[in-house]
Amino acid sequence: MMNRRVVVTGLGPVSSIGTGIDVFAAALRAGRSGITPIASFDTTGFVTERAGEVHEFQPYDMVSRIDPAEWGRSSLFAAAAARLALTDAGALDVAAGSARVGVCMGTTSGESQVVERLTEHWLRDGYRPTPRSLARQMPAGRVAEAVSRELDLRGTTTTVSTACSASNYALGYAFDAIAAGDQDYMIVGGADSVCRWAHAGFYRLGALAAERCAPFDRDRAGVITAEGGVALFLESLDSAQARGARIYCEVLGYGLTCDAKHPTAPDAASVARCMRLAHRDAGIKPDEVDFICAHGTATPANDAAEYEAVREVFGDRLPPMSSVKSMLGHTMGAASGFSAVAAALALSSGFLAPTINHLTTDPAMPGLDVVPNRARPAQAQIVQVNGFAFGGNNAITILGRLA
Amino acid sequence: MTVTTDLPGITTVLGISGWGVVSPYGLGADEFTAGLRAGRDVTVDAAELTDEPVPHPRAYALAGFRARDHLGRKGTSFLDRRTAFAVLACRQALADSDLVVDDDNRERVGVVLGTSVGSLQSTSDYSRDTHVQDKPYLVNPILFPNTVLNCAAGQAAIWHGLRGVNATLAGGGTATITALRYARTMLGRGRADALLVGAVEEYTPHMAWAGSPGSDGAPATAGGEGGAVFLVEDATAMRAAGRTPSAEIVAVDVAHTGAGMDVATALAGLVRRMLRDAGVAATDLARVLSCGAAEEERALDATVGRQADRSSVTGVAGDCPTAAGALQVAVLLAHHRRTPDDGSLSLIVAGSPDGTVGAALLRGTGHGSRNHR
């Protein structure tokens, strides 16, 4: 079977700490926090009221083909991020009208705000009539379809809904599609929107922090719910070189496992197996990994399981491992996509994104270097991106500096 | 400068070694096959399903379905309807196959399920609770995972001990074809040995209203629910092991209209390429199944023509695109189960209102079920 090398040549983040790769990279370097008081819903009665919202998101300024009035917030995040990534790749002319360009976007809850608005309508006015214009916006598959429609892409269009590792699934699927020759180019990433029910659900699980997200900290209290969209443009190495594109990094491989154990509790053994699959797929050994972009949600259970798995696979030599969720909050289906962007920057721009809000590393995690509070200049060669999820859906990607 | 290639891509043929189905025509492959043959009216009065008003009085639905009647009491009290359907259909598919899942291979066996929005009842009720409880956060933490779209696939893995690739793909009427294509990539790239692939949907007033054209006053049609799951493996590997698939997916692909939103033209182009690449003429097709949309019919007019033996799955699934996509495949498999010496080719097509189009070519093998091995 054909096996082409696959590279990342465009990045498009739409986030609470900045939109566009230059602003986003500067924010990661500066260790900026995007956590603010919630504006998208009425927090009266809630105990905690902070989230990572993209207050400045102006879809009318960011998409040109699709009409924002007809699309939910997550789809608009996806379309806006994809346009940024394609522009960053200098590939707008490559893509339009092509059946060789596919799309794969991840999402946890799809158009959660549309479901909320429908629910509020049903509560207030009953089912009859249900506003068609709103109901039409609900299918989660529209998250990827928005990208294809906005950019006139005609290849395979897929929305992966494997919760909070969905962007890593998307990255893996695109890697396979290009490596095997099913597609020549892929736009991948993820998108989700802040919503009331997730805020309530995480709180009731005892997994929601009130003020700040502090992954791997002794006093970590949980996630801060967040939103955004992120996209990466992938193509074959041959294609990137032929058109003289700037190459951020190479996609070396990935691994997927399922815990098949519990809907929400993470399973360290299954995560460790996922890491080993990813390393084998990428053809690397653990000691070649220079940096890990952690899943790092800051829930006590996730971070403990993630540490345990890393310890099992890497032994005594743990690579630096930081979590961009400390800055962004938990952007759900976009989360591992944002981590992949941080990984691409570590490989191309020579810095490791920090874990901010860090006071005391959990004493149960000896040897762990979370890149505390300040970005670190370093030239990583190989970066591992962790993504875990409800449903036991683990996905880990491996990115490398182009040799 | 661009590099454009015309590569073969992944050409793995998917062998179906067993299947399960949840439909008012019957639960499981045998009941469903017999039910389709009998051809009786399986619609039920929607009042048997819900006390709420619904857009159409009838539904292709499983009145009286309770998860515990099929899966037992243990662990079923918190399953939403969609998840219960998925767990059951996966169990049926495993039982229908000769593949033995045990500790030697459970890390290589997984689940790939299509959906539209997950369980809308679960998410909407959760959202509702944030408004009607004394405090907005007084939601039930145990039900929180039900609000996430991958709940059903994750539960199917738990129930059946499947630790391999586990994915959920959102695509409504095109979700099953998308899931088959994803599965082909996973098998073709050696990431799994066997995958339970399909889609299921629940009938609730939420879904009936949100999914119905009747929600803005247009004429409503009978709703539906259910779906199907297929255990797929690499057909070549199956044969090498002395096993025979009950049917094969010889081609499957998904594309998009792009900005133009001409579903009929995009689907026709996809079907033309697929038939050409497979060396199949329209006259070779014994059956062609659509999901019933006008754009799909126009694409078929332009490709396989009106002479082909064409039908729509709407008379099996009702107005329920996600279930319809899965039941398209189930209807073909039921045909091969009834007529096991039939090695004929069938085409299925689907399109979404937002531009995704998909198609698959299915071939009978002369072994419609494991009874013929």
Automatic annotation (TrEMBL), chain A:
Pfam families: ketoacyl-synt (PF00109), Ketoacyl-synt_C (PF02801)
Lineage: Bacteria, Bacillati, Actinomycetota, Actinomycetes, Micromonosporales
EC annotation from Swiss-Prot or TrEMBL: 2.3.1.41
Claim: Lipid metabolism is one of the keywords in the record: yes
InterPro entries: Beta-ketoacyl_synthase, Ketoacyl_synth_AS, Ketoacyl_synth_C, Ketoacyl_synth_N, PKS_Beta-ketoAc_synthase_dom, Thiolase-like
Quaternary structure annotation from Swiss-Prot or TrEMBL: Homodimer.
Reactions that this protein is recorded to catalyse: (3Z)-decenoyl-[ACP] + malonyl-[ACP] + H(+) = 3-oxo-(5Z)-dodecenoyl-[ACP] + holo-[ACP] + CO2; a fatty acyl-[ACP] + malonyl-[ACP] + H(+) = a 3-oxoacyl-[ACP] + holo-[ACP] + CO2
Ketosynthase family 3 (KS3) domain segment(s): 3-401
This protein's UniProt keywords: Acyltransferase, Cytoplasm, Fatty acid biosynthesis, Fatty acid metabolism, Lipid biosynthesis, Lipid metabolism, Transferase
Compartment annotation: Cytoplasm
Protein name listed in UniProt: 3-oxoacyl-[acyl-carrier-protein] synthase 1
Organism: Micromonospora tulbaghiae
Main localisation: cytoplasm
UniProt similarity note: Belongs to the thiolase-like superfamily. Beta-ketoacyl-ACP synthases family.
Domain of life: Bacteria
Automatic annotation (TrEMBL), chain B:
Record's keyword annotation contains Transferase: yes
Species: Micromonospora tulbaghiae
Domain Beta-ketoacyl synthase-like N-terminal: residue ranges: 16-211
Alphabetical UniProt keywords: Transferase
Transmembrane portions of the chain: none
GO molecular function: 3-oxoacyl-[acyl-carrier-protein] synthase activity
GO biological process, one term: fatty acid biosynthetic process
Coiled coil (residue ranges): none
InterPro entries recorded: Beta-ketoacyl_synthase, Ketoacyl_synth_N, Thiolase-like
Pfam families in alphabetical order: ketoacyl-synt (PF00109)
Protein name: 3-oxoacyl-[acyl-carrier-protein] synthase II
